[in-house]
Amino acid sequence: MGKKKNVDKTIEEVKEVKKADEAAVAEVSAAKSDAEEGKKKVSKKKKAKVRGEKYKSAVAKIKKGVDHEVSEAIKLVKESSYGKFDATVELHVNLSIDMEKNKTRIQFAVALPHLFQKQKRVLAFNNDTVPGADLMGDDTTINKIANGDIKPRRDFDEVIAHPSFMPKLAKIAKVLGPAGMMPNPKKGTITEKLEEAIKEIKVGKFEVKSEINAPIIHTVLGKTSFSEDFIKENFEAILKEIKLNKPLKTKGAFIKSAYISSSISPSVRVKTD
Predict the structure, then answer these.
(1) pLDDT of residue 12
(2) Are residues 138 and 175 in the same domain?
(3) Which of 84, 96, 190, 256 is the most buried (most CB within 10 A)?
(4) pLDDT at 7
């Protein structure tokens, strides 16, 4: 009986030692976790950006909640865009569309007066050769795209097609769609007038569309190296197309607000009327 008590006592002691060891290991693990978390927090802390006086002066001129004249807004964006690269000038437009009542997505193609992109290589699907096309497409081309022998962006930048070719292009929709190159009548890339469509693409025609779940348009106006007049003319061209694409059911002002910015500058609210 005494031996059994001694054995039980020994077992209990072993259990206690084991618990103590486990507690010690847990404490060490917790300490390590805290240390790692501390390192992460330190690494996440970013150094405050040091802004120059010219930048601060330009930003100080931006009036929050006030619609600036187009020329003034562009000037402020250019003045506050300091970087070692030619930043993109952007346009952001909030539209007056009730998304619950109107599921229509604003979508159109526009050719800007002043180009800022390299000329696109056009792949055309048609039974006859189309003047201006960089690459003509047929059944063999479709198979090569499906197999990855010919790739979007690497071998071509835009796709246009005669309506009769669309059933065949369904085979490569999963390739062209994600690349934003599936022919679409709203983009003007499904057409019987292929030569005319190619000319428009070559002069810089591109697609502008609102977000899927929000009445907001994000697009580009050019580069900060552009003159103020060039950016203004591009702005006016896009604004005109936005107004022309106002849904019939939309009442009152179609554009709530618009902002011009660059990829490295604050945004400036701009007049649209």
Answers:
(1) 60
(2) yes
(3) 190
(4) 45
Asked, for residue 164, whether it belongs to a domain, the answer is yes
- What's the structural domain count of the chain? 2
Chain mean pLDDT for the chain: 82
- DSSP for the chain? -HHHHHHHHHHHHHHHHHHHHHHHHHHHHHHHHHHHHHHHHHHHPPPPP---HHHHHHHHT--TT-PBPHHHHHHHHHHT--SSS-PEEEEEEEE---TTT--PPPEEEEE-SS--SPPPPEEEE-SS--TT-SEEE-HHHHHHHHHTSS-BTTTBSEEEE-GGGHHHHGGGHHHHTTTT-S--TTTT-B-S-HHHHHHHHHTTEEEEEB-SSSSEEEEEEEETTS-HHHHHHHHHHHHHHHHHT--TT--S-SEEEEEEEETTS--EEB---
**Does the predicted model carry a pTM greater than 0.85?**
no
Give me the CATH number covering residue 238. Answer: 3.30.190.20
Has residue 44 been placed in a domain? no
How much is the pLDDT for 137? 95
Same domain, 194 and 208: no
| pLDDT over 70, % of the chain | 78
